[in-house]
Amino acid sequence: MKKSLFSLAAASVLVSSLSAGAITLYQDTETGAIYTKPGDGRVELGDFVSAKEQYVESQTALSKVSKKLGVKVKAKVPVLKFSGKHYIGYTYTDDKSAANDDSSTFETRRNYFQVKAYWNKHDYMRITLDTHQNAENDWAVRLKYAYIFISDILPNTGVEFGQSHRSWIDWEEHHGWWYRSISKTFIEDKHAADLTNSADIGLNFKTKTPYFSSEIGVYNGEGYHGEHQGTEMSYEWRLTANVLGTGKKKVHMDDEYFDISLTGQYNNDNYYKTDYLGNPSKKQWWGIHAVYNQPQFLIAGMYVDSSSSTYNSGKGRGTGYSFNGEFRPVEKWSLLGRYDYWEVENDVKAGSYAGKDKRQYIVGAAYDYNKNVKLIGNLTSYDDKVNKAKADQFMFTAEVHW
Questions:
Q1: Which of 225-228's residues contact partners 24+ apart within 8 Å by CB, and which partners?
Q2: The domain defined by 80-401 carries CATH number 3.40.50.150
Q3: Domain limits, the chain
Q4: What predicted TM-score, i.e. pTM, was given to this entire model?
Q5: Which of 66, 168, 324, 334 sits at 20 to 30 Å (Cα–Cα) from 280?
Q6: CA torsion through residues 62, 67, 72, 78, sign
């Protein structure tokens, strides 16, 4: 497409410059002398231009056209799509435990850089890089996603193969909880259920029909942070009833949708965070989630049962629930809130965390500065007896998409 645009633009530049700088010449039929004006015995030879001047003018014009059309990018696919996502913020923590001091910190919580290489309209290879601060306090780049997506490998079903999305979190971030820039989802947040993360290496089959959608995945199980061992795989799923027929759409905040989902994971041999005895843990949980959205508001809730797990020294052995909502009173403005509760089972397999609980509140306001930038101010308050943490956090965030 860009080659065609460049060719058309170049042709128009040459024609315009040719007509602008041309002069008409005449020749005397007897002497052969050349004149610029007509006269007796002179015949018109046609329009002529200075080759040197024409070359200089055309190159200058083509250079201007090239700059307007952008830098030429070469690839072995017809389409490359570049994008980025950044969570830039400030957090003041009023620590209410005896373990830590108050803190005041500017942050870059996420810096995603993404490329999708399409070889046809629907199939592509994706790679996503992210930054994080490592144990030495250096800023390092790590791989978040690297997968091939093949559409319609089964009826209404495509597959991600590689370091891909797990079956639940990405869906909730684009349907039920739109504010990952200030807090992860309930199932992932450290001060909530803290059961899984968003990416792993494996297969994720994604089905989309108007009234039913799903993701069914088989993964290593330890996620993109952990090392996999042994032969056991993790089986994960999301089954969603899209009540208003929006299952094939990419929904937005100003759409109306009502979804009810069943999600979960079954992994008998997880090496990322061991059980209370230091052996590979069991990560077995299921949850039910419902969300209703329309342009004026959103309301969502989730219940999770992980009482059969031994994950994370027993911290992941429990049950809990979360509610969140959003009210959009005027254009570009939103008021948001969320409440999380998690309670560890009171038995020996929960180790030293038996019977302890976590509570978390989030309230805030968001403003759509433009189509690329959202500004968010919020208060997050948590009382986490499992991790011995209690604090109020005052946060400001610039969420940037391009």
A1: 225/197, 225/272, 226/271, 226/272, 226/273, 227/271, 227/272, 228/201, 228/271
A2: no
A3: 2-69, 80-401
A4: 0.82
A5: 168
A6: negative
